[in-house]
Amino acid sequence: MNRLLHMLRETFTSLRRNVAMVASVVLVTFISLTFVGAAALMQTQVDRMTDDFYDRLEVSVFLCTDNSTQTACPTGAISADQRDALEHSLEEGAASQYVSSFRHESQEQALENFLESRGETARTASLEAEDMPESFRVLLHEPEQYPIVTELFSSAPGVETVADQQEVMDQVFAILNGLTIVALIIAAVMIVCAVLLVSTTIRLSAFSRRRETGIMRLVGASKSMIRLPFVFEGVIAALVGSLLACAATWVMAEFLLGQWLTRQVPGIPFIDSSASWIIMPGLVLVGVLLAVLSSWLTVRRYLRV
């Protein structure tokens, strides 16, 4: 216990002597691990959105109307028999094995939904029900099977086109995943800077205390007793930076995602601070391990005992 207290006293004495360098280690560690936390939050958010999107993925079978082009609908607007045939296929026919549920959206309902999502503007005020497409909205058992359903209906009589949200959402998720990768790259660069800064701080500390370490060596102090205070110095600085990064991660999850974006975009399920508690232990572990490794290797190389 006395040895541990002695090493801790030596550690805090060195921290006071090298306040500027220690503050630099804390800040660089804080910034780098904050980027790691932001990337982890972003990936968690993408996973949450992906799961929610696949649960609600619909295939839209747009039916021919009087305004459809001759190329897409050579027989004109869909007839009642054609509509019944499509509905039978969804209920009991070839497509039924892939369909979880479906609903018919009339032109009037399509106009109402469009106005509700876009709001009243000068452009939408002139729209009429006849301008909107009639459709079947199909929810699948397995969202990955949408190409099969698309193929079944794309050439069916009375169908103008078949569309799904997969392509658009894949582009959105690709952008979000790209941002995650960018954040990780920045974090990796900053972590390298933090490791180098920890190493430099330990080297300067060892150089400034070379007389003390020489005396300790002469009186018979063990290698671990001489080296560990320098390692503790790097670990404490990295631990403070890690805890600050944890706090920043919690703030982003709670206030940016959990509150502000939830109010701004109510249709998307955003994560909250509970996700940050899963990420925090990893941030602390990464910060401490990097500090231990870089400090220990530096001490072994530059501190001869």
From TrEMBL:
PANTHER family reported in the protein's UniProt record: CELL DIVISION PROTEIN FTSX
Primary location recorded for the protein, binned into one broad class: membrane
Protein's job: Part of the ABC transporter FtsEX involved in cellular division.
Family the entry assigns: Belongs to the ABC-4 integral membrane protein family. FtsX subfamily.
Compartments in which it is found: Cell membrane
InterPro entries (alphabetical): ABC3_permease_C, FtsX, FtsX_actino, FtsX_ECD
Superkingdom of this protein's organism: Bacteria
Protein name per UniProt: Cell division protein FtsX
Gene that encodes it: ftsX
Membrane topology: Multi-pass membrane protein
Pfam families: FtsX, FtsX_ECD
Gene3D superfamilies, A to Z: 3.30.70.3040
Record note on quaternary structure: Forms a membrane-associated complex with FtsE.
Residues in FtsX extracellular domain copies: 57-162
Source species of the chain: Nesterenkonia aethiopica
Transmembrane segments: 21-42, 179-207, 228-257, 277-299
Keywords noted in UniProt: Cell cycle, Cell division, Cell membrane, Membrane, Transmembrane, Transmembrane helix
Residues of the ABC3 transporter permease C-terminal domain: 185-304
